[in-house]
Amino acid sequence: MRRTAALLGLPLLMIVAGCAPAGSDPAVDPVASDPRQDAFAQRATEVADSWRPLPAWKSGYVPMQDPTVLVGDPGFTGETKMAFLNGWYRDQVTMPVAQPADGTIKFPDGTLTVPLVSAAAAYGQLDQGDPPPCDGRPKDPGTKLPGGGPTIEPGPDGPVSSNSQTACVPLTVTAVKLGTAPVRTSRGEAQVPAWLFTVEEITAPVARLAVAPQA
After folding, report:
1. Which residues are registered as beta bridge partners of 152?
2. Residue 105: which of 189, 4, 46 has the closest Cα?
3. Where in the sequence is the domain holding 123, given as residue range(s)?
4. pTM of the entire structure?
5. Which pLDDT tens digit goes with each residue over 55-101?
6. Which site in 107, 118, 142, 172 is 20 to 30 Å from 56, CA atoms measured?
């Protein structure tokens, strides 16, 4: 009888042994001793740490939008919008080069004092260069026809350099002053010190945030 029981138990032991990973010790948890699992856990911890907000997220200044801001409705035309998006400006005033005193950012949950850049430095960041040549525009204000005929004024029938027109007009800066502009930040919308540039061709000031990079 005992021999019969032993023979019946042998297949069960073989099945259990077959389920265990090759070379494993049944008394040791294979997952706990797998170095790959340890490496994965360590990497997961590193990734989680990298996604935790920095202290500045809640107590400093972290802007969530471009540093060039329109303060109001600009009343864009196709050309002025293109100039704004490309940063085409020309200045008609002298830009102050002196660095102003520190300014204050006003958050919904408090304030922060920050160093500021000069108007000249802000304008240097705002101005991205000159527009391309005005292809497609009349070459001459008027052209006389041979034999003393009438003058052809610029228009659909006037001489042009191409059949299409492209925006090629810069925005003219006529004044500048230090003020503030609304900016989305990690702490909500804030009033941030900015240089406000008056532009002749549009109806709203163009603001360039004045907060220094080291703030």
Report:
1. 143
2. 189
3. 56-131+158-209
4. 0.64
5. 888 899 999 999 999 999 999 999 999 999 999 999 999 999 999 99
6. 118
> What total of structural domains would you count in the chain?
1
Q: List pLDDT tens digits, range 147-191.
A: 554 444 444 434 333 334 567 889 999 999 999 999 999 999 999
Please check whether residue 97 lies inside any domain of the structure: yes
The dihedral through the CA atoms of 153, 155, 156, 158 has a sign that is: positive
Residue pair 196/177 in contact by the 8 Å Cβ criterion: yes
Looking only at the bridges linking them, the beta strands covering 103-107 and 171-185 are unpaired
Residues found in the chain:
215
Phi-psi domain of 6 (left: phi exceeds 0; alpha: psi -120 through 50; beta: other): alpha
Which helix (DSSP H) or strand (DSSP E) does residue 198 occupy?
A: strand 188-199
Any domain includes 36: no
Comparing CA positions, the residue from 206, 63, 193, 210 lying closest to residue 122 is: 210
Q: Is the dihedral of CA 91, 92, 97, 99 positive or negative?
A: negative
Decide if 39 is inside a domain: no
Q: Are 160 and 138 in contact (CB under 8 A)?
A: yes
3-state secondary structure at position 144: strand
Q: Is 146 helix (H, G, I), strand (E, B) or coil?
A: coil
